[in-house]
Structure formats: structure tokens, C-alpha cells
């Protein structure tokens, strides 16, 4: 027993000494003392089992010392010991190259690629070597030769796509990506690759040309159409997406479903004209289809959005919208597909015709007709709460909001009710109470709610307590309430006086922003432009700078028709604010004005 224990102790001592020797060699190597490191590794190399442990650092030490023959001898021994570790053969080819024998290295690489192409495990071993030594062309040659030998046209798609990306050949990368996507019916990988790697205008144009070519060459393959539609949606080019969706709809006899879904995306991205065209298509092509009632109602809503965002708003246009909703209900009846029309009518009465009594009457009718649709009823209650703010009855509003919050605890409507209550407390100067609610909503499940909560919370936090009376934020909130109530002229007068008093205050850019938008609503375009220019000149480092620049571009574009000026402003957004949320819209509109698209 004692002899056995002694043997174990001896073995442990030998292992410890071996470990210390290896550690010493690595320490010399890391310090750049290659001669000392090579001397230690040379002793360790006498035992074959040490080869893998010292391989990289020993070879690199010998290369640094230009002891190429010694390195070759070591590598040949390693190759003999481990014939299936093909990376060692790659190391030998690289050693031949760095020793100055390029012709010999080329032969070695050629033989290596030929050998690797016969066995997938060799291909996978060598990929990292080629990336590490920046020999991407050799990697591509190997993958293509392996594909050719396998007689499989789509073998190594993902690996080739990555290699082509590193080689800067993005057109070839896309070819491989599409081939993989079609074979595996995988859109997620294709879409992620495009999003991550196709960003410059020239790359986007190349992608589009390639997809159009694929569609023409493969008319029966709808995959390319679907990817092109997805791409256009990412670029917010909904008119071009509509062209492709319409073609798919007819070819596959989808009954308008694809176009209807795309119209919803266009609407949610505020592209109301494009959405209207799509809804109109569904109505014209499928008057007896399941989507017709929805398309008809949403088409009126598109027109409503256009009317409400074209200033000054004409009362006759509002009355015409209400008539259209009435005709819709008369023609199709009050059904789950049309009942939303009552909500729309009520809000038009309340916010644009100043007829709150009629609005309440219509909403109460909607609630009574909704049957078991609790969610719709609660949405109407939120609308009623908003209308009571117009009527200056905030207690009625907060009671309605609290009812919905209780009824829809785990739903978007419940969070929306909380947000409306927080805004109501903000309007009435109860800032601490508003902040308490907003702090909860910052973690809301809906990004839109969370962002709105964060924005209002920061506004209050940044401006609360900056003076002894909180006068600035209180006055600003009171103006915000006037604007919510559409009392624009009254709000504008207060904004004028606010800006004079608080030019040096942290609220100055917010005041200018509200004033610019209010002037624009009242069709005082020159005054709006002046406010936006002042904001950009004096507050260009504040968070509203890109909002102001985009608003200015839209005014010159849509209101004044000055293409040259608006193009310059859209380009400025892309250069000065590359991460702006207005980037995609600005790029799209800039390209439209430049004449890139023919619809």
C-alpha cells in the first residue's frame, strides 16, 4: 500500500513539473521571448502526447525565429501522428508560404483543398484556418469544390454566404442566402441577413435588381415575391409592395387577403394614401368577399386620417366623412365588422365639430349595440373619458379610465387607461401622481405605451423643481391641455408668452415645437418654418432636433412643393441623424423625389 501511495505521489509530481514547464513556455511566448519559449517547447516536443498542447505557440515561436526547417519537421511529425487533423497540413502550407516558397505553398494549398473537398469533416476543420489567415478566396474554392463533388447545388449555402460576405461579394452572398431560404422554406434567416448586411443605397438597389431577376426567371416560385414585399415594407415603400402583393393575390387567388394585410401595415405606418389604394383594390375586386366590409370601413378611416392631417382642416370634409360612415352602416348594417364606424363618427363630432353631446350619444349607442364585445365597450369608455376632458369634467374622465383599467388589467387597453390617467394628472398639475403611474408604465408590455410613458416622465422629471413654484411645467401642461381640446388659437397666444419668459429654460425647445405644430395646424406655414428654424439653430443638440428637421422637410415637400429644398433636408436627416426614427421615411421620400421609382 505504501509503495502504491508513493507511486501516485511520484506521478503527481511529474505531472506538476510537466504543467509548470508548459506554463513557463507559454509565459515566455506571451512576453515575446520566443527563443526561450522555443527551447522549452522543443524539450516538450520529444513526447508525442505534448504536440497538441504546444502546437500553436511552438510553431509561431519558430516562425518568429525564422527556424522554418525545424518547424516543418515538427509539423510533419504531427501530421503523421494525427492524420485526421487536416488543419496541421494547412499549417504546413502556411509555413511553406511564410518561408518564402509561394509556388510550393500554392501547390500545398491546392492539394489540401482537393483532399478536403472529399470529406465534410475536413471542410469544417479548415474554415476557421482560412478565416484566421484571411484566405477567403481559398475558403470559397474549397466550399465550391466540395459542392461540385457532392453534386448538390445548395450544399454549404450558409458557409458560402458568410465567406462571400467577408470577401465583399454581397451579390454572391445573396445568391446563397436565397438558395438556402427556398430549400428550407426559411424566411427568418434570409430577412435577418438582409437587415444586417444590406444597408447602403447601392446595396439596396443591387438586392432589388437581383430579386426582380429571380422573379422573372422563376415565375412559379412565389418565395422571391414574398421576400421583395417584405423588403419594400422595411423600406416603407408600400406602393411598390402593393404591386407585388396584388400580383400574388391574383396568381394564388387569395381573395384579397395578402393585399388587405399589407394595407393594415401601411395604415399603421401612417402611409394612408397607399393603404387607401389597397383597400379600394379589395373592395373593387372582391365586393362579395369576407374582407369587403372591413376594407370599406378602413378605406374611410384612411381618408379620415388624410383629412385630419391636411391643414387647415375643413368642416365640410369632416361632415362628409360622417356621412360616409352613416352610409356604410346603412348599407351593411351594424355588425362586428362595421360597429367601429360609430366610434369614428363620435370622435369626429367631439374633436372636430365641437359637438360633445352628439358624440356621447353615438358612443353610448355603440356600447349598447356591442353585445358581448367587452373590449370594444371598454375602448368606447376610453373615448368617453377623452370627451369628458373636452367638456372639462375630469372627474368623469378618471372614473371611466379606472373602470377600463380594472376591466382590462392584462391587456393593452388597461395600460392605455393608465396612460390616459397619468396624462390627466399631468394636465391638472398633479405631477408627482402622474410620475408614479408613468414609472409603472415604463415597463409596459406594449412598446408604444412604454415609449409614451418614458417621454412624458422625462418631460416632468427634467422640468419639475427647476423653480420654486413649478410655474414653467404647470403653464406648459395647461397649454398641452388646450391643444388636446383643440383650442388652438388660445394655446398659441399662451405659447407666445411662454417662449418669451422661458427662452433659457429646459422647456424652450418643447415650447417651440408645440408652437411650430400649432402654427402649421392653423395654416400659418411661414410662422411654423420660422419656429422650426429657431429650434434647429439654437437647440440642435436637444432630443427634438430630428423631429424638427423632418417636419421642416415635410412642409417644403408636401405644403410648398419645393423638391430641391425638401431633398436637401431629407438628406440632412440621413447624415446628421443616422439613427433617427425618421430615417427610413426620409430615405424613401428622397429616392422618390430623385426619380428612382417608376410605379
By secondary-structure content and strand pairing, the structural class works out as mainly alpha
Are there runs of 5+ residues with pLDDT below 50, and where? 1-19
Task: Classify the oligomer.
Answer: single chain
The count of strands amounts to 0
Overall average pLDDT: 92
Helix content: over 70%
User: What gyration radius follows from the Cα positions, in whole Å?
Assistant: 35 Å
Gross morphology: elongated
**Beta-strand level of the residues, as a percent range?**
under 5%
What's the story with the biggest beta sheet? none
Number of helices: 32
N-to-C span: 92 Å
Can you lay out the helices and strands and say which pair or pack?
Elements: H1 2-30, H2 34-44, H3 51-64, H4 68-81, H5 86-98, H6 102-116, H7 120-132, H8 136-150, H9 157-166, H10 170-184, H11 187-197, H12 201-217, H13 223-234, H14 238-252, H15 257-268, H16 272-285, H17 292-308, H18 315-332, H19 340-352, H20 356-369, H21 374-390, H22 394-407, H23 412-427, H24 431-441, H25 447-463, H26 471-484, H27 488-501, H28 508-521, H29 525-538, H30 545-559, H31 563-576, H32 583-594
Helix pairs in contact: 1-2, 2-3, 3-4, 4-5, 5-6, 5-7, 6-8, 7-8, 8-9, 9-10, 10-11, 12-13, 13-14, 14-15, 15-16, 16-17, 17-18, 18-19, 19-20, 19-21, 20-21, 21-22, 21-23, 22-23, 23-24, 23-25, 24-25, 26-27, 27-28, 28-29, 29-30, 30-31, 31-32
Can you put this structure into words, describing what you see?
InterPro entries: TPR-like_helical_dom_sf (IPR011990), TPR_rpt (IPR019734). It holds the Pfam family TPR_6. The protein has 599 residues and is mainly alpha-helical. The chain is built from 32 helices and no strands. It has helices at 2-30, 34-44, 51-64, 68-81, 86-98, 102-116, 120-132, 136-150, 157-166, 170-184, 187-197, 201-217, 223-234, 238-252, 257-268, 272-285, 292-308, 315-332, 340-352, 356-369, 374-390, 394-407, 412-427, 431-441, 447-463, 471-484, 488-501, 508-521, 525-538, 545-559, 563-576, 583-594. The longest helix has 29 residues, at 2-30. It is elongated.
Amino acid at each position: 500500500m505504501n509503495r502504491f501511495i508513493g507511486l501516485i505521489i511520484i506521478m503527481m509530481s511529474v505531472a506538476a513539473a510537466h504543467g509548470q514547464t508548459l506554463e513557463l513556455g507559454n509565459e515566455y511566448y506571451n512576453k515575446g521571448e520566443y527563443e526561450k519559449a522555443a527551447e522549452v517547447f522543443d524539450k516538450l516536443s520529444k513526447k508525442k502526447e505534448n504536440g497538441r498542447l504546444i502546437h500553436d505557440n511552438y510553431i509561431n515561436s519558430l516562425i518568429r525565429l525564422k527556424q522554418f526547417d525545424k518547424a516543418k519537421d515538427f509539423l510533419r511529425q504531427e501530421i503523421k501522428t494525427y492524420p485526421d487533423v487536416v488543419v496541421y497540413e494547412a499549417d504546413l502550407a502556411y509555413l511553406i508560404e511564410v518561408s518564402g516558397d509561394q509556388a510550393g505553398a500554392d501547390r500545398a494549398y491546392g492539394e489540401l483543398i482537393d483532399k478536403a473537398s472529399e470529406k465534410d469533416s475536413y471542410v469544417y476543420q479548415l474554415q476557421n484556418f482560412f478565416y484566421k489567415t484571411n484566405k477567403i478566396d481559398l475558403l470559397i474554392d474549397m466550399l465550391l469544390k466540395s459542392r461540385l463533388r457532392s453534386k448538390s447545388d445548395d450544399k454549404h449555402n450558409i458557409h458560402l454566404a458568410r465567406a462571400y460576405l467577408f470577401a465583399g461579394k454581397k451579390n454572391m452572398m445573396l445568391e446563397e442566402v436565397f438558395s438556402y431560404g427556398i430549400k428550407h422554406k426559411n424566411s427568418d434567416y434570409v430577412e435577418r441577413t438582409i437587415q444586417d448586411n444590406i444597408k447602403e443605397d447601392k446595396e439596396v438597389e443591387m438586392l432589388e435588381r437581383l430579386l426582380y431577376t429571380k422573379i422573372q426567371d422563376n415565375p412559379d416560385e412565389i418565395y422571391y415575391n414574398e421576400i421583395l414585399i417584405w423588403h419594400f415594407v422595411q423600406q416603407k415603400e408600400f406602393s411598390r409592395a402593393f404591386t407585388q402583393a396584388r400580383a400574388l393575390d391574383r396568381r394564388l387567388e387569395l381573395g384579397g387577403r395578402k393585399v388587405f394585410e399589407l394595407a393594415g401595415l401601411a395604415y399603421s405606418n401612417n402611409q394612408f394614401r397607399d393603404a387607401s389604394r389597397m383597400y379600394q383594390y379589395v373592395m373593387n375586386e372582391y365586393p362579395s368577399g369576407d374582407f369587403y366590409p372591413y376594407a370599406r370601413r378602413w378605406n374611410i378611416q384612411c381618408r379620415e386620417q388624410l383629412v385630419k392631417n391636411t391643414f387647415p382642416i375643413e368642416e365640410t370634409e369632416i361632415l362628409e366623412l360622417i356621412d360616409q360612415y352613416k352610409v356604410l352602416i346603412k348599407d351593411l348594417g351594424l355588425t362586428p365588422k362595421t360597429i367601429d364606424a360609430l366610434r369614428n363618427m363620435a370622435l369626429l363630432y367631439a374633436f372636430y365639430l365641437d359637438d360633445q353631446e352628439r358624440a356621447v350619444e353615438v358612443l353610448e349607442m355603440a356600447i349598447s349595440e356591442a353585445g358581448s364585445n367587452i373590449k370594444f365597450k371598454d375602448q368606447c369608455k376610453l373615448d368617453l373619458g377623452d370627451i369628458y376632458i373636452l367638456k372639462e369634467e375630469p372627474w368623469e374622465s378618471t372614473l371611466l379610465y379606472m373602470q377600463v383599467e380594472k376591466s382590462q388589467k392584462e391587456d393593452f387597453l388597461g395600460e392605455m387607461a393608465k396612460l390616459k390617467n397619468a396624462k390627466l394628472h399631468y394636465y391638472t398639475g398633479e405631477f408627482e401622481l402622474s410620475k408614479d403611474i408613468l414609472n409603472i408604465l415604463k415597463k409596459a408590455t406594449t412598446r408604444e405605451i412604454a415609449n409614451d410613458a418614458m417621454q412624458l416622465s422625462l418631460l416632468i422629471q427634467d422640468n419639475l423643481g427647476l423653480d420654486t413654484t413649478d410655474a414653467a411645467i404647470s403653464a406648459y401642461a395647461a397649454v398641452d391641455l388646450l391643444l388636446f381640446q383643440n383650442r388652438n388659437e388660445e394655446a398659441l397666444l399662451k405659447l407666445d408668452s411662454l417662449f418669451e419668459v422661458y427662452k433659457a429654460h429646459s422647456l424652450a425647445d418643447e415650447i417651440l415645437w408645440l408652437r411650430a405644430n400649432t402654427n402649421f395646424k392653423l395654416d400659418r406655414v411661414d410662422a411654423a418654418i420660422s419656429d422650426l428654424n429657431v429650434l434647429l439653430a439654437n437647440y440642435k443638440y436637444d432630443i427634438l432636433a430630428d423631429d424638427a428637421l423632418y417636419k421642416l422637410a415635410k412642409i417644403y415637400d408636401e405644403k410648398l412643393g419645393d423638391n430641391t429644398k425638401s431633398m436637401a433636408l431629407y438628406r440632412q436627416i440621413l447624415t446628421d441623424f443616422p439613427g433617427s426614427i425618421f430615417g427610413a421615411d426620409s430615405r424613401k421620400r428622397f429616392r422618390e423625389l430623385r426619380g428612382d421609382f417608376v410605379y
